[in-house]
């Protein structure tokens, strides 16, 4: 696993943890001094751990240079909606 994939997995894991934690805190009420906030932090760690597993699987079977499960799109192909100058394809 190269550095780019590692950083991609780390970013996805951190994003999963923060969004889950904030979602639980907001839904439960915003009292960070209560025991429920600590429970929310523990619960938020589960989706983050699953994100690590998902990223490891993606780096093996999907795009080899990221944690994505889908293969990389053809960069040289005509799959872009804009031309080389950033104008819409077929436009002037």
UniProtKB/TrEMBL annotation:
Keyword Transmembrane helix: yes
Keyword Transmembrane helix in record: yes
Superkingdom, natural source: Bacteria
Residue ranges of the region described as Disordered: 70-92
InterPro entries named among the record's database cross-references: Holin_r1t
Keywords for this protein: Membrane, Transmembrane, Transmembrane helix
Annotated TM spans: 12-30, 36-57
Composition-biased stretches (Low complexity): 82-92
Protein name per Swiss-Prot or TrEMBL: Holin
Organism listed in the record: Streptomyces hesseae
Lineage, broadest ranks: Bacteria, Bacillati, Actinomycetota, Actinomycetes, Kitasatosporales
């Amino acid at each position: 696993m190269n550095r780019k994939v590692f950083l991609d997995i780390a970013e996805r894991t951190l994003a999963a943890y923060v969004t889950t934690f904030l979602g639980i805190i907001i839904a439960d009420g915003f009292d960070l001094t209560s025991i429920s906030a600590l429970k929310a932090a523990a619960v938020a760690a589960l989706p983050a751990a699953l994100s690590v597993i998902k990223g490891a699987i993606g780096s093996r079977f999907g795009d080899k240079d990221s944690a994505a499960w889908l293969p990389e799109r053809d960069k040289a192909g005509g799959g872009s909606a804009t031309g080389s100058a950033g104008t819409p394809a077929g436009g002037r």
